[in-house]
Amino acid sequence: MASSKKLPASNSLQHQLKATLADVFLSPSVNNGKGYVNPKLVVAFSGGLDSCVLLHLLSESRKIIPFQLQAQHIHHGLSPNADVWADFCADFCKKLGIPLTISRVEVNKSSGLGLEAAAREARYKALLASQADFICLAHHQDDQAETLLLQLARGAGVKGLAGMAAVNTKLLRPLLDVSRSRLEAYAKQHQLTWIEDESNMDTKFDRNFMRHQVLPILTKQYPAIKQTISRSAQHMAEADILLDDLAAMDVKNCQRHLFDSKQSDGRQLQLAPLALLSMARVKNTLRWWLLQHGCDVPSAAQLQQITQQLLHAKADATVKIKVATSLILQRFQGCACLVKEAKEGGADYQRDTFSLAWNGEQVIVLPDQSRLLFSQQLGEGIALRHLEKAQLVVRYRQGGEILKPQANRPSRSLKAILQESHIPPWQRERLPLLFLDANLAMLPDIAVDAHFKAMPAEMGLVVQYCY
């Protein structure tokens, strides 16, 4: 008969960690369904209790589960003790035989984020730059409870109330279901030492206020509240997955019949099917779609503004909303479009002076990092015989250009051709034009002047524009 006696804290934690690692490394949802063999783990090692326990646990676990283990200490330089902490981390890792990288970062104190958030941003940027399969963080159950309370205080939605994920791309939090008291018991049993960051007691920081002022009161009244808050976060995480699945279906429906197949890169949404959804689904769809393209989670006010302008502004109204550092949300022919923000002047090109001769290359990279791809095809593009007599040159639109797409029809203005070809206004100025000497010969992917077009039985130069 098996004993009902509980395992010592060290054994139970080690068993739990090994099971977690095995699940993550072998999961069909990671590494394109292949799982991981001898993955590289980097521990975010502050030298505090939590990360000391995590590093020690992982050091023991690698004796049974094969993986590479390193540590990375982020030196913020914000405390007078920062150098002492770095030395402690070096000694701790040396005793365990674990390689350590000390990364010095600059915290932007004038970013407007606040010192706590600015330091976190600098820390994660340094950690995620590591060439590792997983960055291991020592967040635990108490941290999850604090996070959820902070999100409640900020009026967060389902995604925010889901708290921290145990696995999020490269980030791995194997102790998320473990209480801090269990970590303390493990540290004492193994006689681990750790450092105490004096700022952890400063309640002017939101997280410390929750940790030292709010949670103790709640715990006194509701002893199991940390566990129940953690369970609520798991429920919210499941709800968030369902909302994401619904949004993905709605986005797919809103991209089913785009006006230009070349633009079906995911950065466009048809507004007619979007408008048929309930307002809650509209907002859920837009929020998910923006996140998929690198935008920050929009606030409730921002989402309301985006919804209003996309669905209810007049048909001829200009919609232009900045949704990320380099992305603008615009509306065109019944579609919402995410557009890369043009960087005029300086490092970007000057359209009025730009000119580049083609000398037989297969690919030309333009100053805005878009590309022209050159190939030869029978009966298509510019007849090769014309290239023997004149230099092919890439330029940008200046105004007043004309082109004759059909031999039996008169020449037409470039403006009219671009409008009829459903080219959005923000792309018209960036569209590279191909000239033979002073004559406009081709609009890539759109039209070739009839004077230069290859006949059915002759080879021609085809040019594709990739933006």
The CATH homologous superfamily of the largest domain: HUPs
- Using only C-alpha atoms, the radius of gyration works out to 29 Å
Tally of DSSP β-strands: 21
- Overall 3D shape: elongated
What profile does the largest beta sheet have? 6 strands, mixed
Assigned CATH architecture of the largest domain: 3-Layer(aba) Sandwich
Top keywords for this entry?
38% helix, alpha+beta, single chain, 6-stranded mixed β-sheet, 3 domains, Rossmann fold, Chorismate Mutase Domain, subunit A, 467 residues
Any overview of this molecule?
- β16 and β17 (412-413) form a beta hairpin.
- This protein folds into three domains: 9-238, Rossmann fold (3-Layer(aba) Sandwich), CATH 3.40.50; 254-340, Chorismate Mutase Domain, subunit A; 355-466, no CATH class.
- The strands form five sheets. Strands 3-2-1-4-6-5 form a six-stranded mixed β-sheet, sandwiched between helices. A five-stranded antiparallel β-sheet has the order 11-15-18-19-20, with no helix packed on it.
- It has 467 residues and is of the alpha+beta class.
- The termini are far apart.
- α1 (9-26) crosses α2 (49-61) and α9 (225-253) crosses α11 (279-292).
- The protein is built from 15 helices and 21 strands.
- The model is unreliable at 1-8 (pLDDT under 50).
Topology overview:
Layout: H1 9-26, E1 40-44, H2 49-61, E2 68-75, H3 82-96, E3 100-104, H4 115-128, E4 134-136, H5 141-153, H6 158-161, E5 167-168, E6 171-172, H7 180-189, H8 206-221, H9 225-253, E7 268-270, H10 271-275, H11 279-292, H12 300-312, E8 320-324, E9 327-332, E10 335-340, E11 355-357, E12 363-365, E13 371-378, E14 382-383, H13 384-387, E15 392-396, E16 402-403, E17 412-413, H14 414-420, H15 425-428, E18 432-436, E19 439-443, E20 447-448, E21 459-466
Parallel strand pairs: 1-2, 1-4, 2-3, 4-6
Antiparallel strand pairs: 5-6, 7-10, 8-9, 9-10, 11-15, 12-13, 13-21, 14-21, 15-18, 16-17, 18-19, 19-20
Helix pairs in contact: 1-2, 2-7, 5-8, 5-9, 9-11
